[in-house]
Design goal:
With 335 residues, the protein is an alpha/beta fold. The protein contains 13 helices and ten strands. A three-stranded antiparallel β-sheet has the order 3-10-4. The chain has a three-stranded antiparallel β-sheet with strand order 8-5-9. A two-stranded parallel sheet has the order 1-2.
């Protein structure tokens, strides 16, 4: 007759319960961020039906911010797990905020890629500004000091011998306010970024003086960034999230889905769909990598520019601040 050891039975049952508990562990909570609804984090949740891992290995929440600098604070305090950061804010987070463990993991969009859109800087079509040199003694609008757009305009004016405060005045204004301020002659140069630069009224009264590409070349405008320890602890869930994100991104980039994609953007921005159908997710838009891979060489050049303009003290090697293995592994799954 076989004798059953009660202690061994109890331990085996506990082990099975532990395994079941592990298998039923809560999904990893991933909170990401965005500024405008045409950033990927806002758009991903509009196509949840394509996310095969969402709700299983991870959950996703998109938090809206007024700009990318507040995202740095949120990353530092643990209020978000992924920051959708402008290159300028990413650099400040690493160097000034001391987040040396912050890693670039993905691309949101790039400016100035050949064949795609680049931010435009407008003057009045019937005004006196004909060349960059004509901005001496004038007023230049920017969305925020030290922003990617701000650095581009400073770099272009510097090329033409003009320095801020000495040769021209900079004032900050919200991007939607740039057109009315130009129309009312409160500023002499106004930045045009998507979708605001497609405003028919701006195109009617304004003339493009230069583009961001002409000022600084290719720009890795927005990157996804996360802490190294969070990536290591939750790698499997992060790859699942990247896979789902990539599948959704490719759906948006497919010309066959342009009409539906434009309708989604229109709903999020509360604008008519026909304002987007002619350009969104096309070569008239910013470049968006279908495998969510950022251009690290462009990012390095952008951060070096930031340093040369006095916004960073030392700079750093961006290749040491990047982990693209998540995106590459996710891309392999979709082949």
């Amino acid at each position: 007759m076989k004798i059953i050891d009660p202690l061994r039975t109890l331990l085996a049952a506990a082990a099975l319960l532990g395994l079941a508990s592990a298998l039923q562990a809560d999904p990893v909570k991933i909170r990401t961020s965005y500024v405008v609804p045409i950033n990927w984090p806002a758009l991903l949740l509009e196509k949840k039906d394509l996310a095969t891992h969402l709700g299983k290995s991870y959950t996703l929440e998109a938090v809206r911010f007024n700009g990318t600098p507040p995202m740095v604070t949120a990353l530092a305090s643990g209020d978000i797990e992924i920051g959708d950061l402008a290159y300028s804010s990413f650099a400040l987070a690493v160097e000034n905020a001391g987040m040396s463990d912050l890693m670039v993991i993905g691309d949101d969009f790039q400016d100035g890629v050949p064949g795609y859109y680049s931010n435009e800087f407008f003057v009045l079509d019937d005004g006196p500004i004909k060349t960059v040199e004509d901005l001496k003694g004038k007023v230049v609008a920017t969305n925020a000091t030290g922003s990617a757009v701000d650095l581009a305009s400073r770099a272009m004016l510097k090329k033409h011998g003009l320095e801020p405060n000495r040769d021209y005045t900079i004032i900050e204004t919200g991007l939607p306010s740039a057109r009315p301020m130009l129309a009312e002659k409160k500023v002499d140069l106004a930045p045009g970024v998507l979708p605001f630069s497609k405003d028919p009224e701006l195109r009617k009264l304004g003339r493009i003086l230069f583009t961001q590409k002409e000022a600084i070349g290719k720009t890795q405008m927005i990157v996804w960034a996360a802490h190294k320890d969070f990536i290591a602890k939750n790698r499997a869930a992060m790859v699942d999230m990247m896979e789902d994100s990539m599948r959704i991104v490719r759906w948006y980039l497919d010309p066959a889905n342009r009409k539906e994609a434009a309708a989604i953007v229109a709903k999020l921005t509360r604008q008519p769909p026909d304002r987007y159908e002619s350009w969104i997710f096309s070569d008239k838009d910013y470049y968006r990598d279908p495998s969510l891979l950022p251009d690290l060489d462009a990012l390095q050049a952008n951060i070096d520019l930031q340093k040369s303009l006095g916004f960073l003290k030392t700079g750093f090697d961006v290749h040491k601040q990047a982990d693209l293995s998540l995106a590459r592994e996710a891309a392999q799954r979709l082949k």
